[in-house]
Amino acid sequence: MNVVRYQFLFLLTISIKIIVAQTPFLEFIPYATPEFQQYSIRHHTDHNYPTQTPNGVNARFDGNIFYNNIVAFNCPPGVSCYDGHAGNDYHMPINTPILAAADGYVVWSAFSPGADPCPGGIEPNGDTGIIIIYHYNDYFTCYLHLNPPLNVAVGETVAAGDTIGFNGMTGCASSPHLHFEVRKENHFFDQELPWVVDPYGWWGDYDDPIKSIRGFANEWLWMSDWVIDDGKAGFQRFYGPNWVYHNIGYDGDSWTVPASNDVENSAHYAIWVPDLIDSSEYNIDVYTPTIPDLTSAARYEIIIKDTSGINTKTIVV
Predict the structure, then answer these.
(1) Co-location of 205 and 246 in the same domain
(2) Residue 116: domain span
(3) Residue 291 domain flag
(4) CA 31 to CA 186: how far, in whole Å?
(5) Does residue 42 carry a pLDDT above 70?
């Protein structure tokens, strides 16, 4: 497991998020990880009405709101994609093994019709391969666009990390990817009043728009460690066109991106969330690989969520 750190970075929007009162339960990244540790997310959950139906607004988990370049699939992946999206899309090679993110039992395993119409006006590739797992805590994880065969049947118990199926592009998909979606209190797909929550939480400095639908607060749901590593669930990288992987750095690897001084329009960002047991004072240490001309500056956003769900952001440059 290897930590991803800042490299060739000037005011790049990569944030460190700190939580002190959560109950994360998602233990595994929901796919067999590659040698470079993790596939990026190209399409994030839209916190403004995630129904797979566009309404002209896209709200990202960090509070950034987009009104332009948000239409599937003509939007910049990893930044403002896309209006109405109800989950997080990990793009990966076809037939990559898909893993159960946590212990649970299967409540749905079938090929079923998807959203109607498909986002972006594309034609569906037949029915969508879907598996839904209940996790004994009001949460359901949904795995979409799977290829046959589906490895599990309704009523079966699964353990975190079990292979439940294989990545594909069935249903409303223009390329192979896993649509990973978390629903709360109900596994039903509702395009009017969705049950969707974002497992990456909400870190904006205003009230989460998703709460206006069913009153659900978005919380960070991934189990993590004190040391955040790019092969673990406590870290997630979002797609950018110029991420470069290197076999040097903490535990043998690192990533670089071109310098940027435009925070709002940055095309490269990621999120770290360490597992903090209790409210206290913490020192945050960042490992920087000994690479010549590594960086001219770095921007860290440290966000603390209190027990009432209010976020406080501190920016360190």
Answers:
(1) no
(2) 41-214
(3) yes
(4) 24
(5) yes
